[in-house]
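Attaching the record inline, Q. Sequence:
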Amino acid sequence: MASGDPLTNRVILWTRVTPAATRSASGPIDVQWQIASDEKLGQLVARGTAQAASETDFTVKVDAGNLQPGRTYYYAFTTGGE
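Structure, as predicted:
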């Protein structure tokens, strides 16, 4: 996981998903993302779903906006229960 290209109210989050060996690598994979104001991700400020696909080497990029400037945020990606 990584983040970058921050502006005063947004940031780009990205990650790469490795498809399970038992899953067909040709179909898209839903990836949930969330941003919180606390380390335990209990106070969510944004969340959504993106898709990882073979065309993008299963990379997901999220342009997360509507954030408050000068604050610390924490984020996570999940898919398939992990």
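The beta strands are 2-4, 11-16, 29-36, 44-52, 59-64, 74-78. The chain has no helices and six strands.

More tomorrow.
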